[in-house]
Amino acid sequence: MIFLDEKFVDADLTLRRGGHVNRDNFTLYNWVQDNYDTLSGYYTNFGCRLRQHPDGFFFLVVSGQKLKSRVLPMSCVHLGIFLALKARDPEITKTSGRIAIDQLLQDIETTVPAETLQKVYAPRARESQIGSRIHDEIASALKVLAELKFIEIQNDAVKPLESISRFAEFARHDNEPDETALSLLEEQEGVVGVEADEDGGENPEQDGGNHEEA
Amino acid sequence: MADADTGQSLLEIVNPILAEERSIDLNANDVALIVLMRREIDLNPDGLLTLPYSTIQFLNGKIDLLDARDPQKAERRLTESISRLIRADCLLQADLLRLHAARDPEYQLTSLGEALAEWHLTQSHFSGEPLSAIFKAFIDQLARIVERAESAKTQDDWQIEIMPQMQHALRDMLINVQQHQRLLDRQHAEIRDFIPKLLTEQSEAAIRQCRDRLAEVLKTIHDLQETVLGSSSTITTLISRIYELGEPYELQRFEVVYDDLVRRINSINNWITQRLTDWTDHYGVVHNVLRTIVRVDRYKRISDALKRSIAEPPPWSLAVADEPPFYRMRTDLDARRRVRRAPRIKKAVHDRPPEFDEILPDELPDLLKRYARKDYEAFAEVRASRVIRKTVPELQPEGLKVISYVPDFFAWLVSIGVIDEDERGWEDVSAEITIEDLKVNTDDFS
Fold this sequence. Notes:
The structure holds 2 protein chains of 2 kinds.
Chain A: H1 6-16, H2 26-34, H3 36-44, E1 48-52, E2 58-62, E3 69-71, H4 74-87, E4 99-100, H5 101-111, H6 114-121, H7 130-147, E5 151-154, E6 157-160, H8 169-172, H9 179-189, E7 191-196, E8 202-204, E9 211-213
Parallel strand pairs in A: 3-9
Antiparallel strand pairs in A: 1-2, 4-6, 5-6, 7-8
Chain B: H1 10-19, H2 28-43, E1 50-52, H3 53-67, H4 74-87, E2 91-93, E3 106-109, H5 111-123, H6 129-151, H7 155-201, H8 204-246, H9 254-294, H10 301-309, E4 316-321, H11 364-379, E5 382-383, H12 384-394, H13 406-416, E6 418-419, E7 426-428, E8 434-436, E9 439-441
Antiparallel strand pairs in B: 1-3, 2-3, 5-9, 6-9, 7-8
């Protein structure tokens, strides 16, 4: 009876709150892997799908109406893509997979065009406040990504976990997935399309899901 | 200032060194040459102790090959190296008397040269072995100290023999371990810098090389951990035994030496554990990059797409489960933390305690002045004794209170009239009070 196991509570809470079970949490990861079939059946009853990504980690894709879901804000997705890119850089091995937060901020500023930075992280900010708003928004996005176990924040550094590769799903299709690929991404990876508002805000496309904006 | 062991003064030791300007001035090539010479002697099946110049020339050629130096000046460099090694007392010519073989002279390592070569040979091994050897030597020394401690009978045995041995053994071990730590850290830092270059190359050979380096590092770290953790328990047991044996003697500084030993051993263990964690992390990250990035995205197609995608706001997002947390039940609340307030009761205005105490003004000064005026009206003079005598009954039961006002009253009398110096006798004004009388003639009672 796995449901009386304490690890079930940990795994269930992590997954229901949109988190990922990565290999770095070795005990929990092994437990989920060992009980994958039972857990998969359990979450099917909630209208969800327990997925194991080809890279190894586990996460929940919500498709029915029984469990709530939310769409990640644009800042989290952009930062996730940026971290997924940094995690692929061989230079990251020098620091055992950690990126200093100051370095991350500096890299974002030098790599991403200023206009994109403003649109993503400070869409409605006044000219004089753009810099501080971008900084605050990145800090807040890092917190959300850490809560969802995409990354781990260790002192003044960020360690991307293997689940960060979910942000590379679009790039696997060269950023332009065809319809079949897109529907597969929606179904298996929880990808949703967003249309930017005129004022820079975002608006998830209606797909009949039970999504809430974060 | 004499050395306790040898009886030599420091001056006697230091003077000849300074006078003869003894120094060891060698460069990296000289050290490499002496290490190769030592190795060559060790490997020689005939057990020769000397090397002919031609062999040294051959060894130097190998060094030049590795160092990519100008081959034209090889002979000159070799001659200079040999001169420096001879000046530094590391090498000597072994066949001075064999004049017939002067074209191929033979050279021999001195004890200093051998020790130098030995040290560098030991340091160049990148494995757990040197550390295990250091620990083994330390354990042997400790075991001997335990044996000696078991036979020790007096406090002097401990102070003169055992404690200095403990300190000496610790110092030797620490020097060796620190040298090894530095080298290991340097080697690891080099690997840390080297692996990204291999990963960037992405050729199959580079990947294989990368995996080999990682396996080597992990093996070394595991060896180190096994060695140190295994040895440290033996060391701790031996140190504890020494402590048990020495404790009854109540030796001076014994606790300090013991604590120092334990602290150093713990610090070495912590260092190894920390390095193990660092390198396991590093291994995991490199392994992950190899497995999920280099193998899958050999031509960086995904990385390039990611680079392009960060230039624009993403046209997609991820939907993640967002089940709210359970509601906290009332039983979860700590009842003791709830403060129950008393109900408010409306009180009548007169029930309230007064906000301040009413203090009536002191009337005694005015009373004295009033009686003084009456006294003047009756007798055309004022006598203090008469005035106070009349006042005292008015103040009952606090008749004595008048005393505190007598000085002020006298001062007032003096200020309004002229004192009759002839009328200054002592007068009883009540049963308890006697005053020096004061008679004043005045009519100014303003």
